[in-house]
Amino acid sequence: MKSPFKRRLCDGCAIVMLGLAVLSGPATASEQAVAPDWAPKASEKLVRLPAAYLKRSIDRDFAGSGLASAIRAQSDKVSNKKRTIAELQEAAGRAEGPARIELRHQALAEKQQLVRLLGERTEFERREWETRIRLYQGLLRSIEQTEKGLGPDARALLDKQQAAQQRMASVSTQVDTALLGTGGEQSRYSAKYNAIQTAKQNLIARINTHPMNQQPEIDGKAVDRKTYLRRLSEDGESMLALLKEEETVLAFMGKLVALDAMALSEEVAETRNPDDVSRDPERNSVSASADVFLK
Amino acid sequence: MNRTKTGCAILVALAATVGATQASAGPLENLERERANVIRTIVDATMSPAERHKKLLAAQRRLVDLERIAIRDPKVAQQNTPVARLALGNYDLTFLVHAGVENRLTITDQWLDQLGLTSAALMNARLGRR
């Protein structure tokens, strides 16, 4: 059975160690046994998705990943830890003497764990946003490469073809009338082509009005896919900047826990009986211990 | 020995078939073939005017479809071949029927016009020796 002095000494040491542990900063996610992961690819399938559906698809993919599960689990742990700390602080407020110190000690230990949990969650969130930014930028590059697919010569030729198409379309009816006369029978190709065009136009109209194919909007204005992806990437950068700020807050939290630990240690030291200090060295001296060997 | 030869012959025949399938003509090549037939009809001196007119009328209908198929095919510009560059660079000479209707000329006049062989130019021409 330990004497009250030794126990207090141990408490003091534990508190200082706790403070040092907190100051050393939260454990990084790399220290976890199994690092949760999310590795989406800027696939062709994703590039072809309607822009409005793109973010939802990415969000859904993330929600099913190990990283999202880890963030959810960490959030649950943080909530539980906060509840435990509040209960311990409430109990410490009611308790007196050694029980009060013990409860404050426990609360500090829980706070240290809370800081660690928050640090891990921030690390997971940082990884999520870095992955998202990489994905958005990868998609943006894929779209730009698809658009750049044609060289300047081919682009010029395509422009010529489009101009020729318009020119031909403007005289199409005149050509039919001139060759077939009014009410003349169309060629098999023309008849089929017109039927296909009608079907295509109906389908395009339906696609354009489909709710899943609506243009994404930023500040109430419809924007194209590239602008939308650029905005998503910028939002991701903003989130990363906020997470950096949160890391600063976490560092302050850790420092505060360390200061609390040092204050508690001082408090424990002050409550020690001075007689214990004078008596202890005498009792544990070499000469006093000689009796043990003489028996 | 004979069996080996037969096997080789079958393989060669198969390869030729595959090759023939891959070398199928594009829309511009089909248009060019039909256009060449029309021009041959125009310049054929052995043909009577009535016969030429009848033949040209039938050819024009086919040519209209082929011109439309060629101009609507997105691969024509994407492939960026010399044939495509020439064809799209000279609309009035490539798409004779459509350009002719647009310019209110018959297909023959459209072709001659594009070559610079107008009636006035021909009337002003003098026979001489260089």
Strand and helix layout:
The complex is a heterodimer of chains A (295) and B (130).
Chain A: H1 4-23, H2 44-48, H3 51-63, H4 66-94, H5 97-147, H6 152-180, H7 188-209, E1 217-218, E2 221-222, H8 225-270, H9 274-283, H10 286-294
Antiparallel strand pairs in A: 1-2
Chain B: H1 2-22, H2 27-43, H3 49-72, H4 75-79, H5 82-89, H6 91-94, H7 96-102, H8 107-114, H9 119-124
Helix pairs in contact in B: 2-3, 7-8
What does this structure look like?
The complex is a heterodimer of chains A (295) and B (130). By secondary structure, chain A is an all-alpha fold. Chain A has one domain (4-172, 227-284). Helix content of chain A is 79%, strand content 1%. In chain A, helix 4 (66-94) runs antiparallel to helix 5 (97-147) and helix 5 packs antiparallel against helix 8 (225-270). The two termini of chain A are 23 Å apart. The relative contact order of chain A is 0.14. Chain B has one domain. Chain B contains 9 helices and no strands. Chain B has helices spanning 2-22, 27-43, 49-72, 75-79, 82-89, 91-94, 96-102, 107-114, 119-124. In chain B, helix 2 (27-43) packs antiparallel against helix 3 and helix 7 crosses helix 8 (107-114). The termini of chain B are far apart. Residues 8-23 of chain B have low confidence and may be disordered. The chains are: A mainly alpha (295), B mainly alpha (130). Chain A binds chain B through residues 150-151, 153-154, 157-158, 160-161, 164-165, 167-168, 170-172, 174-176, 178-180, 187, 189-190, 193, and chain B through 57, 60-61, 64-65, 67-69, 71-72, 76-78, 80, 84-85, 88-89, 91, 95, 97-98, 101-102.
